[in-house]
Amino acid sequence: MRARYPLLRSPVFWVGLWLMGFLAWAWRDSWRWNPGVLCGSWACESEWGGVVVLRANGMLSPGVEFYRSPSMAPADAEVWQRPFFLKSEGVFTQVPVWTRRDELAGMRSFYELSRLELRHEPLGYYRVYVPYWLLMMVAEVLWVGVLVWRGRRWKRCQVISEQ
Predict the structure, then answer these.
(1) For a designed S-S bond to 43, which of 5, 54, 97, 150 qualifies (C-beta 3.0 to 4.6 A apart)?
(2) Which one, of 161, 107, 139, 148, lies nearest residue 10 by Cα?
(3) CA angle, 97 as apex, 91 and 102 as ends, to 5°?
(4) Quick one: residue 49, left, alpha or beta (phi over 0 = left, psi -120 to 50 = alpha)?
C-alpha cells in the first residue's frame, strides 16, 4: 500500500490557507476602511471590496505616504463588484466630486462612482479595479493546481523509490 501525500506537512498548503484567510479579511475590511499608499503619481487602495490602482498625471505625494480612512461605501452596495479599467474624460471642474451628494445618493457600484469621479478629473488619470473575489478565485485555482502537481510529483517519487 502506497502512502498518501502528507498534505498537512506541506508548506504550500499552509501558505495557501494563510493567503485565503488574508484575502477574506482584506475583502471584509475594505468595506469599512480604505487603507492605501501614495507614491509619486501612483496610489494603491483597498476599497469597495477590491484593490484600486490609480495613476494621476500630477504628483499625489512627494514621497511614500500610508493612510487609512473610513469607507464611503453605502450599506446596500453590490458585494460582487466587477473589475474595470477607466481613464479620465478631461472635463475638469473645481468642485470636488464628493461634495455632490445628490449625484452619489443612488450609487451601489464602485464602477459608477469611479466613472463619475474620473469624468471630473483632467486627462491622464487612470484607475484599475480588481475585486477581492476575483483575486481569491485566481489564488485558489493556482493553489489547488500547485497542490495537485506536488501530490502527483510526490507519488511519482514514491513509485520510483519502491522499485
Answers:
(1) 54
(2) 148
(3) 115
(4) left
Q: 57 is written with which cell numbers?
A: 498625471
Length of the chain equals 163
Distance of CA 47 to the CA centre of its chain: 8
pTM of the complete model? 0.80
For residue 1, being part of any structural domain is answered with no
Check whether 100 has a pLDDT greater than 60: no
The pLDDT of residue 99 is above 60: no
Count of CB atoms within 10 A of residue 34's CB? 19
The arithmetic mean of pLDDT across residues 93-106, rounded, is 59
Q: Report the C-alpha dihedral over residues 67, 73, 79, 81, rounded to 10 degrees.
A: -70
